[in-house]
Amino acid sequence: METERKINVATLDSPHRRALEEVLGQELQSNQQVLISIINLQSAVHDDRPVQTLEDWTEIYDGLSEDEVEAVDATIKTRADLSRDLP
Question: Cα 67 to chain center, whole Å?
Fold first, then answer.
């Protein structure tokens, strides 16, 4: 469904005019029209990966040695250190 609206700036009350100016990022003049279009977009995301389950993640370390698991764990802990001063 596509919808298009033409709005004469001169017919807008002050709050609505300010709201449109805020959205557009510029001051509107009385001799201008604002054209608003609503367009349905096709989904741009096509993820061909299979859906993951919790069971898939429980086997994430399968086949790794203890040293490899420790290396992965150290990397994860480093990335998780957000270095914020939390109380």
Answer: 38
